[in-house]
Structures are given as structure tokens and as C-alpha cells.
Amino acid sequence: MAFELPPLPYSHGALAERGMCQETMELHHDKHHQAYVTALNGFVEKNPALAGKSLEEIIQMSHGQADLAPVFNNAGQHWNHVLFWQNMSPQGGGIPGALETKITSDFGSVQAFKDAFKAAAVGQFGSGWAWLVLASDGKLKVAKTPNGSNPLATGEGKALLGLDVWEHSYYLDFRNRRPDYVTNWLDKLANYEFAASQMG
Known about the structure:
Blueprint: H1 22-46, H2 55-62, H3 69-86, H4 97-107, H5 110-123, E1 128-134, E2 140-146, H6 151-154, E3 158-164, H7 171-174, H8 178-189, H9 192-199
Antiparallel strand pairs: 1-2, 1-3
């Protein structure tokens, strides 16, 4: 079975009033994400060892393998973006009670979490991602990964929220102001309800 681009869980223009315009979504989802899916399917067709493997299996078997770096990059980016679209909502920004309690317990306060997440997102040099993960010890932690990598590959924990800090994700809306993009995402776009549902 070929991998497919999942539809957005909202319209392309649904996030415009909250800081992510329709053109950004059309380019990011329909062009960038589609390109990763197309490339990944091409690699799978040419490599019998990848046939029949799940996306997660491909990411784990290709991680750290120099000869499979292009496979890892495109598989990782497909996985990352599938999560990313679910990590945003037109009603984003509000943190449900149970998750707020957990964040406060593990980070000290919601603001401390947001500060740590922003530091990771802004501090990721070049392209990459910032993450809220549920670590194996049961605590929430912030992580960052370069390029197409993710917590599934690095073993840092279960990804609850992932923020894309590749420039194409924010340049139309925020130009080169990554810190403003991150703050806006945390406060107005992040789907904390989805994150809470993944903790289970």
C-alpha cells in the first residue's frame, strides 16, 4: 500500500484568523507534505526491504543509516506532518484541566512550559522541530530535533505536540520572526485537547 497525504482536519483557511494564512496551508500541506509522501513512495518502490513496512517501522529502521538517509528524511517528515496538522485547531490555545495540571506538575507552571518549548523551537538551528513528549519515566518534557527527525526515531518519548520550525511553515505569516511564530502557535493554534488525548 502506497503512503497517502491525509486531508487536513479543517479547511485551508480555518487558521487564518489565528495566524496561519490559507496560502501557507496550501503550500505547506498540498505541496511540501505531498512532496515528502511522493518521494517516500518512490523509495519504497525501489527498495524491497521497505515493502510492506509501516511508516513507524521505516523511520526506526532507517534512522542513523547513512545509505537510507533520504528514506529517513522523507518518512520522518511525513510522520511529523501527519501529527502537525492534528496539533493545530481553529479553537486552539486552551489547555484542558488534566493536561494543565500535568504541565504544572512537570514544568512548574504553564508559562515555564511555554518558555522551555519556545527556547527549543527558537534554538533549533536551521530546519527542524520542537516537541512536547511524554517520556518513558511518565514526565512531560520538551525536545527538539533537526530536519526530519522526531522523538519516535530518537526514543525520547511519545510525541504529544510537534511544531514545525522549517521556514516554509511561517515565512508568509511572520517573515523571519520565528519567536513570534512560536508564541502565536502556543497561544492560539496548538491543539492541547489532542495532546491530552494522546497521553492515555
